[in-house]
Amino acid sequence: MPLELQQNEESSLLCLEGLIDIACAAELKKLLIEALSGAKEVRVSLGKASGLDVTAVQLLRAAAREAKASGLEFALAGTMPEPVLKALGSAGFHEFPVSAGISQVSGVG
């Protein structure tokens, strides 16, 4: 399954795998809403993602804005493959929130 949500009372971890595109946008949106409503911090793991289309990037960015407005932490976690970094950079998200220990989006593009 390309999308998996792991949750406890404190945090949510959404793991994305393979190509995340318009075909899984509805499921991604559903899981992001669930993650934001059920924890104090949300992390999105993109380590197994092979790519993101603009729809996926927009959904992640909207979730980050919603988290910030709600006082929740939201960040990308783990390592990110080069195609994912390029997709984020190409979409203009050079300052996307990231957890410690992963490649920054800035400078990509």
Q: What is the fold named in CATH at topology level?
A: Transcription Regulator spoIIAA
Low-confidence stretches: 100-109
The CATH superfamily bears the name STAS domain
**Considering DSSP H and I runs of 4 or more, what fraction of the residues is helical?**
25-40%
Largest sheet composition: 4 strands, mixed
Commentary on this structure:
The chain is α/β, with parallel strands linked by helices. The protein has a single domain, classed as STAS domain (Transcription Regulator spoIIAA). Helices cover 35% and strands 29% of the residues. The chain contains three helices and four strands. It has a four-stranded mixed sheet. The protein is globular and about 30 Å long.
Short key terms for the protein model shown above:
3 helices, 4 strands, Transcription Regulator spoIIAA, 4-stranded mixed β-sheet, 109 residues, alpha/beta, disordered C terminus, single chain, 35% helix
Provide the fold topology:
Elements: E1 3-7, E2 11-20, H1 25-37, E3 41-52, H2 54-69, E4 73-77, H3 82-90
Parallel strand pairs: 2-3, 3-4
Antiparallel strand pairs: 1-2
